[in-house]
Write a structure and sequence with these properties.
The protein is α/β, with parallel strands linked by helices. The protein contains 12 helices and 15 strands. A hairpin with a 4-residue loop joins β1 and β2.
Length: 380
């Protein structure tokens, strides 16, 4: 696993790759701290039976760019635990989280600040922070957890910070590109923690959401979907496809619909070389992580489709983490997300236009420039 990472090493990192193991508990994990020029590495803990060091490295590098682009005093990091939560008890899972927290204590929170990711959430973060002994060890903690008596520090996902950022990026990019957002049509892939809030917030700015998907399929109504009823149907029947009136489509068909905006908000690698030719949207806004690979983004760009990359569009989550880290309340957090996403989206759009490059290249270039500048200041 060590050589997996070394072949990717470059001027940006990784700075540290830690493999940890607790034979008594059966915990196996990896932490990649990619770059700490701007501050401690920030990144979530995912728990999967397929975790690899290479995967964690790529995610850590994405966090390096995302935090720099969002102008946060965080570097990039990511961690993973090799385990299948479906095959262990809740008690065993928490025991593994505690063991992982103990193993990372020498570098956390000084060099690494954790967060929820796949198969970890608020309660796992509560356990992680308590075992570490510092509330700065992670973000994404429950609202009831306190830095000191009477001061609440957790910001729960119910505030939909990632989706707030996605909608701000959508609104800003649409205005810049001359697309009238009021009355524009949108299709949202996924109706989970990000997608459901994206649908709600889009409707609040008068975007007509005509299609939404989940694991069972797509519900499509060109006249628009009502968020409240859609949310109720999803909760009661466990799928959006039971919404009426509407036409049920296959999952991949959502990317071929005649809409203005497509928002992939769930799975990675959903617009590919096989279906990119079917995309009719004027904008693709990446709410999920890596829903479109860079080479496919370039295909879309050359066709005149404006692609807002994940490291820009979904940065509301890590901005919210910073707000929690600083002890902000939810209202302060939401204002910070809106302000930063609007400003950075405009900065990236202007840079891309000036250099005649795609938004991802523009975003990464800006992130690199900010890290280089910070590094030079540190050396003086």
């Amino acid at each position: 696993m060590r050589f997996e990472i070394l072949k990717f090493a470059d001027e940006w990192g990784p700075e540290k790759v830690l493999h940890v193991y607790d034979p008594e508990v059966g915990m196996k994990g990896v932490l990649v701290i990619d770059n700490t020029t701007l501050g401690p590495g920030k990144g979530g803990i995912r728990m999967l039976p397929t975790v690899t060091a290479e995967e964690i490295f790529h995610l850590a590098r994405t966090m390096t760019w995302k935090c720099a682009l969002a102008e946060l005093p965080f570097g990039g990091a990511k961690s993973g635990i090799l385990a299948d939560p479906k095959k262990i008890s809740r008690e065993k899972k928490m025991e593994i989280i505690r063991a992982f927290s103990r193993a990372l204590k020498p570098v956390c929170p000084k060099l690494y600040v954790a967060a929820p990711d796949i198969n970890t959430g608020e309660e796992e973060m509560a356990v992680f922070a308590k075992e570490n002994g510092s509330m700065k060890a992670c973000t994404g903690k429950p609202f009831y957890m306190c830095v000191k008596p009477g001061v609440k520090c957790g910001i729960p996902h119910e505030y939909g910070s990632t989706a707030v950022g996605v909608v701000q990026a959508t609104f800003t990019a649409a205005n810049y590109a001359g697309l009238d957002i009021e009355g524009a049509t949108a299709a949202v892939e996924g109706f989970g923690n990000v997608g459901s809030y994206a649908v709600e917030y889009l409707t609040q700015i008068d975007v007509k959401v005509v299609a939404v998907s989940d694991s069972k399929g797509v519900i499509y109504n060109p006249k628009g979907l009502e968020y409240e009823r859609l949310s109720k149907i999803k909760k009661e029947t466990r799928s959006v496809v039971n919404y009426t009136p509407g036409k049920v489509l296959g999952n991949e068909e959502i990317f071929a619909l005649p809409v203005d905006i497509v928002i992939p908000a769930a799975l990675p690698n959903v617009i590919t070389e096989d279906n990119v030719k079917n995309v009719k949207a004027k904008m693709v806004v990446e709410a999920a992580n890596i829903p479109v690979r860079p080479e496919i983004e370039e295909v879309l760009r050359k066709r005149g489709v404006l692609v807002v990359p994940d490291i820009l569009a979904n940065a509301g989550g890590v901005i919210s983490s910073y707000a929690e880290y600083r002890g902000y309340n939810p209202k302060q957090m939401l204002k910070l997300v809106q302000r930063k996403i609007r400003r950075n989206t405009l900065t990236v759009l202007e840079y891309a236009e000036e250099k005649n490059i795609g938004l991802r290249d523009a975003a990464v270039n800006i992130a690199k420039e900010r890290i280089r500048k910070a590094h030079q200041v540190k050396r003086k």
